[in-house]
Amino acid sequence: MDPLSARYLAVQPLLLRYWPGETTAVVYSAETATTHLVSAWGFTVLDAAARGPLSGRELASLLEPTPNPVDAETGLGAVDLQQLAESIDGLVSAGLLRIAA
Amino acid sequence: MTLRLSDLPPAQSQALLAGREGLRLQMGPFTANVRTRLDDVAASIYRLYGPYTLAESESFVDFSVSIQRPRGLRRLWQPQVTFALDGLDPFNPLPGDQGFPLLEWGLNWCVYSMCHQYLILHAAVLERHGKALILPAPSGSGKSTLCAALLFHGWRLLSDELTLICPKTGQLIPNPRPVSLKNESIGVIQQLVPQVRFGSRIEETTKGVVAHFQAPAHAVAQAHLPAQPGWVVLPRFSAGAATVLSPLERSQALLHLAENAFNYDIYGGEGFDMLAQLVDRSQCFRFEYSQLSEAVALFDRIADPNTHSLKP
Fold first, then answer.
1. Does this model's pTM top 0.90?
2. 3-state DSSP call for residue A44?
3. B187 phi, psi to nearest 5 deg
4. Closest CA to B49 of B34, B29, B65
C-alpha cells in the first residue's frame, strides 16, 4: 500500500508531550500502557492524526505548511517524502498510528 | 516529647527488637516495626538508626518486619537469615552475616512494592535550597558514590535509592535511611568523609562488598520537608573521564524516569503526566565524571541560584 495515499488515525487515548526546541517528544498510549520516544516529526504526525483521519499526503502538507516548489509528479512540497513514509511506518509498527478503515 | 533510638541504652533497644512488640521506627512517611533476636543486626540498627524517632506504640505501622534465623538443622553448620513481612518470607534466605543488608533491601522492597500512594523511581534524590536533584541510574553508574559525596557537601539526603513523588503536589517526599555503598565506593567515601558512621562491612553478598552508613542527622530530622523538582541528572562514572555535564532533552529524561519507575504501570496516564510535570519543572542533564571533587564543585554551581552557565 502506498503510505502516502492511505488514511491514518492516531490510537486513542494518546498523551503527547513536546517541549519546543527539542528533537524528540514522548507519547503515552493508554491502549497499550506504553511510553514511546518519537521524533519531533513523529509528534507532529500523531498530533494531527489524533484529531481525525488524514492521508499521508495531508500529513505531508501539514508538515510543510509554507509555500514551496511543488513536485509535479507527487503534488507535494519539498518535504522529505521518504522520511515521512518511514516515520509513518515506524508509528504504525509502534502501535501509535493505525490505518483508518 | 520526641524520643529517638539513640536516647535509649543499647540494651533496651536490643530488648525491644527481641520482644514481641518490636521496635517502631519512623522512617520518613513510613513507620516500620522491626523485630530481630540477632545481636549483629540489633547492633547495626542501633548504630545506623540512632537519629530516628521512635513511633508511639499505638501508632499505625506500615511494615511489620523481622530478621531471624530460619528453623532447621542447617543453622548449626551454615547459619542463614531470613526477612519476613507480617510473618511471610518473600525472599530466599541469605548467609548469616547479611542480616542488616537484608533488612535494608527488604524495607526497600516494602516501599516500592506496596506504597503506591507515591510514584516511586529507582533513583537517589537530594535537596538544596528547596529543590530536588534526582539521580536515576542503574547499578554501577556511580550514582550512590556521587549521592554520598554530595550529602556531605551541602545537599540534604531524601533517599539514596527510592524517589517518592506525591501525585497531588508533584513534590519529592523524603525517606532518608542508611546509605548503601558497594565495593570501591566504601573506601572512597571513608577517605572523603572520615567522620562518617559506617556499619559492618559485609563481604561476598550478591552485590559484592556492601556497607551502610548512617544518614546525616539533619536529613532525618527534616524528613517531613518535601522538595520541589529542580534537576534530573543521569550520572555515569567512567574511570579517567573528564567531568562533563551536557544538556538532556526533557522527553529523553522523561523516558528514562519512566524506565526507572517501580509502579509507573499502576499510575498509567497519570504517571506520564506526573513525570512530564516533573521534567517540565527541572533542568535535565547527562553527567560523566571520574573525580568526585570536581563533581561536588560542579553540583555546588548547579545549586547556586546565581549560576548562569553550567559548563564544567
1. yes
2. helix
3. -65, -35
4. B34
Beta-bridged to residue B95, according to DSSP, are B80
Q: How far apart are CA A72 and CA B160, in angstroms?
A: 61
Instruction: Retrieve residue A4's grid coordinates.
Output: 502516502
User: Which residues of chain B neighbour A94 with C-beta distances below 8 Å?
Assistant: none
**Residues forming a β-bridge with B208:** B205
pLDDT tens, B27-36?
Answer: 999 999 999 9
**Between residues B291 and A61, the one the model is more confident about:** B291
ipTM: 0.84
Place of cell 509555500: A67
- Structure confidence at residue B23 (pLDDT): 97
User: Chain A, 1-30: which have a CB under 8 Å from a chain B CB?
Assistant: 13, 15, 17-19, 22-26, 28, 30
Q: Which of B119, B249, B266, B279 to mutate to test the interface with A (most CBs of A within 10 A)?
A: B249
Residues B247-278 have pLDDT tens digits of 999 999 999 999 999 999 999 999 999 999 99
Task: Tell me whether residues A18 and B251 touch, CB distance under 8 A.
Answer: yes
In this prediction, residue A78 has a pLDDT band, given cuts at 50, 70 and 90, of low
Residues of A in contact with B250 (CB under 8 A): 19, 22
User: Nine-digit cell at B213?
Assistant: 552508613
**B251 contacts chain A (CB < 8 A):** yes
Residue with cell 508538515: A63
**CB crowding B140-166: b at 16 or more within 10 Å, else e:** ebbbbbbbbbbbbbebbbbbbbbbbbe
User: Residues B94-147: pLDDT tens digits?
Assistant: 999 999 999 999 999 999 999 999 999 999 999 999 999 999 987 778 899 999
